[in-house]
Structures are given as C-alpha cells and as structure tokens.
Amino acid sequence: MDSKSQTSPPYQGSESFFRSVLASMEKVYLSRNPTANAILELVHSSDNGHICYDHFAFRTFGVDGYGITSMAKFFLDFGYTPRDELRFSAKKLKALWFAPPTNDHDNSGSGVDGPFPRVFISELLVDEMSPRAQEIIKKYTKVSGSGCKHAALASALGSLTWENPLYSDFMELARESEYAAWTLVNGYALNHATISTHRLNSHMKNINSLNHFIEENGFKLNTEGGVLKVSPDGLLLQSSTVADSTTFQFADGITEHVPRSYIEFAERLVLPQYKSIPEPEIKEFHRREGFEVGNADKIFESTSKEQLTRKTG
C-alpha cells in the first residue's frame, strides 16, 4: 500500500452527486455535534488553510444485511476499494476500511470538497451477543424491512431506517454493549469525521500541537489509553474528542440525552523508505496507510459513558 501502483482505480460516476451526499452526511453530523462544528471552525480560522478529511466512520449492526456491506455499497459504486479487515473480539466488532478512488483534481478544496476521505465501517457481531440483545436488535431491523438498502440515504437525511426505539430497549442494550445502544439511536449517521493533521499548514500539522490547542480552547479529549493513540510502528498517530450528547425522544415518550458523535485527528508519518524525499514533494501515498486495531479500539471509547461523564482537569 505504499506505492502508486497500489492506489485505487479512477473515480467512477458523477463527482458532484457523490460530494453532495458527503456534504449532506457532514451537515447532519455538524448539526448534532456542536463540538465538531466548533473545532472545524476554530482550526480552519487558526490554521489559515483548508482542512482535509482523513476518513469518515460509520457503525452498523451485523445482521439481516445491515452490516458493513449495507453502507459500503454506496462507496463501492463510486470507485472505493476494500482494504484490510480489523477485529475487536472484546467488543464483538469487526471493521473494514475502504480506500478512496484516485482523483487528480481533488487536492485544492476543503472538507468534503477536498480529497476524498477514506471510509471506515464497523459492525456489531450480533450473533455473538446475548439472546436478549439479539432479540432487541432484530426487532428493529425487521421493522426496517429493506432499509439496509438505503444506508447512505439514511445517513444523508439523519434518519433511522427503523422506528424510534423504546428507552427500555436502549438501556438494556447499553448494559451489554454501548456500541449497540449508540447504533440503535443513531443508525447510519456519521459516527466521526477525522481531520488529517499533516495536511494542515501551521504548527498544528503536528498532532500533539493540535491536541494542546484543542484542550486550551476548553474541549475534552478521549483519554482512553492516553490522549495520543500510537500504532506499534509509531507511524499512525490518532486522538479524538469525547462525543457530544443531545436529547432523544424515545417511542415510549421518554426524552433523555444520548451520545452522538465526535471528531478525530490523525497524523500519518512518512514511511521510512521515503524519508529522503523533500517535504514539499511528499504525497499522501508516501505516508503510513491503513488503520490499527489498538488505536481504533481506544477511539471507539469516545462514545462511552465513562468518557462522556469524565470530569476535566
């Protein structure tokens, strides 16, 4: 994955349509997550440059066609390529990431108008859950019918493909899997967007500087395993905020706060074989590619009750 010969095929389909769907997903995400919105504005104004997204991430239920493939289809149709599978046995999850298609004209824009983001899609291994948890999840996917065919549309609209759940079902799932409870109330909504720090223009291209800047401005970062998550090879550095919470009206009339989404930051360092290349000539394919189980496992905790309720200072 470290050479041009291993990049994905050229873009397929209408670029303007594809970007408009990404923009709608982003709009829903920003409307529900004031922290992400504020940080994007803060970094954009402070860095005096454009922001590139490293990846978009989604969560799914791995049952009845509602897993990874349901959301992946949209991206595959527009030239994305499946890459590595990751397993998270303790959380009963698996994930697959997808490389974006090559596009020679996508480097000047910012955000969803910039380089296409990688896509990271995870799924809950429902058949490994308790019988009661499986029963609850399958009740909603059954009600949804063929909703799994419209994952991208549901994400762009910010709508669930099933009816609003019962609060008792949400709480029962939360006791066994916070991931399951999150997916029940958020569905295919964008779980997080990730700023590519090394593509920034200022000192904040160093992720430690960016983390410090964010904390100085009063935002809370996920401390699971330390603020900075580092891959074993030391070349993939990641951090994230703690998820926002908003009120949600459950089907039984109860209104409670539920976890929404968060924003992540990723710095991909230059691979050893390209260290001699001058900085201005470094391209994305010269840098560390892919994802790391250890890092991602801790990033998942950004929506956990422990992180949401943790006091700062």
UniProtKB/TrEMBL annotation:
Which Gene3D superfamilies does this one have? 3.10.180.50
Q: Which family does it belong to?
A: Belongs to the 2-oxoadipate dioxygenase/decarboxylase family.
UniProt keyword annotation of ATP-binding present: no
Q: Which organism is it from?
A: Thalictrum thalictroides (Rue-anemone)
| Species classification | Eukaryota, Viridiplantae, Streptophyta, Embryophyta, Tracheophyta
Q: What is this protein called?
A: 2-oxoadipate dioxygenase/decarboxylase
Q: Per the record's keyword annotation, is Oxidoreductase included, yes or no?
A: yes
Keywords, sorted A to Z? Dioxygenase, Iron, Oxidoreductase
Protein EC: 1.13.11.93
